[in-house]
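Hi P.,

Sorry for the delay on this. The queue was packed all week, but I finally got your sequence through. Input first:
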Amino acid sequence: MTIRSAGTYVASGQSSDGNIVIDVEDDDTVRLVLNGLELTSQTTAPIYSKEKNKLIVTLADGTMNVLADSGAYQYEKEGDDEPDSPLYADGDLTINGSGVLTISGNYIEGIHSKGTLRVMSGDITITSAEHGLKGKDAVLIYDGILTIHSGKDGIKANNDSDAALGYIWIDGGTIAIAAQDDGIQAETALVIRGGEITITESDESLAAKTIDILGGLIDAVAQDDGINSAAAAETEMEKMMDQEGVYTRIAGGEVRLNASADGIDSNGDFYMEGGALYLSGPVMDGEGIFDYNGSAALTGGTVFAAGSAGMMQTFGADSTQNYIVIYYEETQAAGTRICLTDADGTELGSYEPDKEYRAALISVPGLESGNVYHVITGENDEEVTIGDVQTVIGEGGFGFGGMDGGMGGPGMGGRGMGGGRKFSEDGEMPEDFQMPEGGEMPEGFQPGEGGEMPEGMQPPENGEMPEGMPGGRGGMGGRGGGMGQ
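Then the structure:
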């Protein structure tokens, strides 16, 4: 079936070898309501929206809908490579409604838009040979249930030719990802403001040039770095340098990471401003709990991070919240509880790391200089008096420190020499920020120096990113930072 005029269409029924083509003028809008549709194509995409029009797919309430392709496509011309997924759009694609959609992407992608891909609602399950949910210009998720099993990245935005595009914005929903490559990967910016994100399998769980975590619950397992912020790099030396405009920022929400390589790896800066970070990092000394090339500042939030000791980097000179670094004489078994209490025994926080560990970093709001606290690891109770910003228990940390952080060891993992950039004290969004109908991207979103969110964020039409968005994560050597990448 070919749709040649803008409007609303309802599709239902079954076909084992059929497809729907949307072929309307650029900028025209077609709403396609899936009302119990089971559509498989043996030669192409079951649903294919041509040109730069706008496709809205609505999942009718109470319906089950299935789209599947085969492992091979037949194209009209040699060299053609689109469509490449069961639900494919050359322009913008929006998915909403309260029904169920199951995607089997046996050829390449699961759902693919070459424009902006928005998920507003719906219960969507994707199994794909390569990327699960891919919007070239942008991916925006506001609600719904997403379950993704992908042969490459789970969620991806990959426009590397326009610095204002290639971003991912997550504001809500329940997202479960098992990916053979990155869990969520953006070419430029990744912003997470809400939702529940569970990544049970990934190479790197979260990856982008700039990463802002402002809210939500993230629970991720990575075979490589837990979080990686990096820009394109042509040489190994460039990967080890401080990359301008690159950062990871945690200002809200709760982040739980289980990483086999670096816990948080930034080829630029790292900022911990609010929320909570529970990190079970590497067990090998060639990797670090934190690995950053620029500066690192701790100004708020709760941190319980445990892992290897050899490449230990701590926070830097711009830190305003006190923290404790512990080096253990013996390796602590996985699951050994770390608990921080005040002098009276009141628990201030605790964590049971997923892996064995030789070092830990702890911080909670209100950790006061001169006061006595207790760090209880398993059965061992260590009394500690808080010094100036960083207090070290034990000896260790034989790796390289960053430009802004120290190496570890008694007095060596201190405040460092460099200066970091600061964000707002509480990491809150501006008071006048309003989410628009349809969940478009806010106008004026542009991480400035240090990545602070601008005042007066307001939503534009069509959810487009403003000009000037820092660009370019991918390309050669886009991952890794410091030693042991």
